[in-house]
Amino acid sequence: MADENTANEQFEGQRDGEELLFVFRRHIIAMRKGFYLLLIPFALSAIPPLIWQTKLELFLLPLAGLTLGLVLFSYHFMMWYFTVYIVTNERLRQVTQRGFFGKDVVELKLSKIQNISYTVPGFSGEIFKFGTIVIQTFVGDLVIHKVEHPSKIYNQLQDAVEHAVARGGQAPDDEEASQEAAAEAQ
Length: 186
Description:
Blueprint: E1 20-24, H1 32-45, H2 47-51, H3 61-81, E2 84-88, E3 91-98, E4 102-109, E5 113-119, H4 122-128, E6 130-137, E7 141-148, H5 150-166, H6 172-185
Antiparallel strand pairs: 1-2, 2-3, 3-4, 5-6, 6-7
Helix pairs in contact: 1-3
């Protein structure tokens, strides 16, 4: 989901003069495995009390199944919630949660992006408003599956890339380095 009022927000790793444009994450449907892991233990543990209704201690099984399901679900929820895509006026930063303590960070300069495209995977994608965004660069593709409102995110990314290219596509450090190189060449 893209956040609209992000002008004053900060994030870990933000550079001086860098402006946060928007933040988005994958659609909640990307967490469907977590929903299954919530429901299956509960449903399976509810069967014995239905069969042997005279044994009152079996009625605690659904509570145990629900507790196990909630633990498994909370793990998947954490993986989904802490995986975010941050777009600034200079770069796209993908922060992916790996386990409880692991984290992967991938950054792409907006000026290095060659092409952006998106697809909506048929009926379910149309109904639930999710799709896949593919960002192509010289080094390879960044594929983001199950993005909420892919057309909206696509348009915001296109605008960010156009603005980055229009202003020269160089970070402040790159501008200083290119000015120094030009001065040395003369």
